[in-house]
Amino acid sequence: MPLPIPELDDKRYEELLKEAKARIPVYAPEWTDYNAHDPGITLIELFAWLSEMQIYRLNRITDRSYMKFLKLMGIGALKTARPSVVDVTFSCNQQYMPVRAGTEVAAMDMVSGEEIIFETLENLDVIDAEIKAVLSFVSDEKNPGFTDKTAANENDNVYFYAFRYKPETGDAMYLGFDKSLTGREAVIAFYLSDKDVSKTGRYAGKRPVVYPSAELCWEYYARGDRGDQGRDGWSNRLEITDETRHLAVSGKIRIRIEEEMKQTIIDDHDLFWLRCRVKKTGYEIPPKIDFIVPNTVSAIQRKTFKDCRFCGSGLPDLCLELPQAPVIEGTPRVGVREGDAWVEWNEVWNLDSSKPGDRHYKVDMTTGRVRFGDGINGRIPPDGKDKDNIAIFYRSGGGVRGNVAAGTINRVAEKLDELVTVENMRAASGGAEAETLADAMIRARKDLRTTYRAVTSADYESLAMNTPGIRVARARAIPGYHPDQKNWVPGIVTVVVVPESPYAEPEPSQGFLMTVHRHLDQHRLLTTEVFVVAPEYVEVTVAATVIIKPENNPGRVRDDVEMKLASFVNPITGGRDGKGWRFGRAVYRSEICELIDGVAGVDYITDLTLRRDGRDQPCDILIAPHSLVFHSTEFPSEINVEEGGFRG
Prior knowledge:
Layout: H1 13-22, H2 24-27, H3 39-58, H4 63-72, E1 85-92, E2 96-99, E3 104-108, E4 115-120, E5 124-127, E6 131-138, E7 145-148, H5 150-154, E8 160-161, E9 172-177, E10 185-192, E11 215-221, E12 234-235, E13 239-242, E14 251-256, E15 263-266, E16 269-280, E17 288-294, E18 296-300, E19 303-310, E20 319-321, E21 333-338, E22 341-347, E23 360-364, E24 369-372, E25 390-396, E26 409-412, E27 420-423, H6 437-449, H7 457-465, E28 472-479, E29 492-499, H8 510-521, E30 529-533, E31 536-548, H9 554-568, H10 589-597, E32 602-612, E33 615-617, E34 627-630, E35 638-643
Parallel strand pairs: 22-23, 29-30, 31-34, 31-35
Antiparallel strand pairs: 1-18, 1-27, 2-5, 3-4, 3-26, 4-18, 6-7, 6-9, 8-17, 9-16, 10-14, 10-17, 11-12, 11-16, 13-14, 15-16, 19-25, 20-24, 21-22, 21-25, 23-24, 28-29, 31-32, 32-33
């Protein structure tokens, strides 16, 4: 239950009068007559009464007034109900079946028993080809080969790497189909695992513009010997539309092949093959796939009303009720018959600024009411004289009821219900109710706290961390630092970014740096030049001799020490606070001794040497302001564990 909203001022007439009289000795000590007959007291009583009236009105600001105030702050109107979006997968029992954009599919509302209508957003050619094999190929010079991922793709909640843990150039993923894809546009959905990773950055509702971190090349098997295991005969002469940013995010890939596909045997699978090959590596997070499925398209929870007819009355303030609400913002179109021609009218937020001749109308998206002018603010539609002279096109949808669970969308429009079937393999998301006035006021407060202009170092770091479409784990702004110069340079800000990554040395790709730079460049001051660079990593390892307490397992203690060191010297989760090693912070020998000494089972340390990039250091390790440290997994620390004795 929300707390009651306090009054802006709760003073009443008696309090105001008493407070004013108490100030008389301070400002007019010669005034001694405080009785009601005194003219001065009469004026004080009058102003106290007027003040009470003003306070009364101040505490009763109408919702309309609040909306005017919000408009002054840039909040033009309340957000309407948002429709949910879901991916739906079709299947057919014949070779080919077109499903056009706008095709209705439905789920049953378990509460009301009514159907929840969704409409597909794009055209789809449903084909009867199925994925029968998924293979990963590792282009290792010493041990190249295939790994069969078919079973993982068919089982729920079993994830697999598209290539390998750290993809390299030449790695590939093969998709084997039981039938040729020639002559049709195949739509294949790739669902990546979103576990163990944070959500991508968001900023002020902007649509992300992201430069890919890696580059893939899609090919199909076109010719060659059936026994060559797919080594030769690949062609890249196909049309590709990729929503996944080269398998960096979940999405769909449209592939059209006009030339003939050939069948061949790869890893004991005799199929028609597509493959995506790593042309340029650079993934911050390796593609980890949940499942791959063809014949999938996005659908939105809405229903289209193409021709709603009404008869105008010719009277002011005409209000029409649409057959279904809520209305999706931006979809209404109103046409009014004027004489022998239909004229399209324009939608406005309100009619306050409309002139008498303006063809304007206002739509209440929540209730579905369309309101026209009164002849002073907005034109009056003509009288239809018992004939429909107003036509309205709009789409209805939105709300949390559209967030249906996986597997609940199972009905297709009547024209296709005997030809294709449909299913949503993942739950719908994004549906929300219309924004209330209280929500809008909270949004206004958040908007005031949002950084729109980069002035201070903290501004640059905040903007970099919230770059839309990518995952930035850490950012550090260094004013006056130019990447190519040693001296301090005025008017320069260099932002060092660390991507979210499972690797010990998180390295941002060129596309990642370009994405952050594009975002910062839109918010920098005109006279400031911005650089975005990767951190300079310093490998830190330890060589130490540790004496353990009696009755402790040496192997377990060694593992605990190495794990503690790797966790402490980590660019993302290291440091004393666990929020990542601070940029430019030195590694001190004393704190490493303290860290090892705190491991369970350790008695004391007889010898400890810090190593920088594999070389012994005589003292502490100092690093540059744009540098970070990491603990190598390939060449870990050397921890010699000896059983305890008596200290000499």
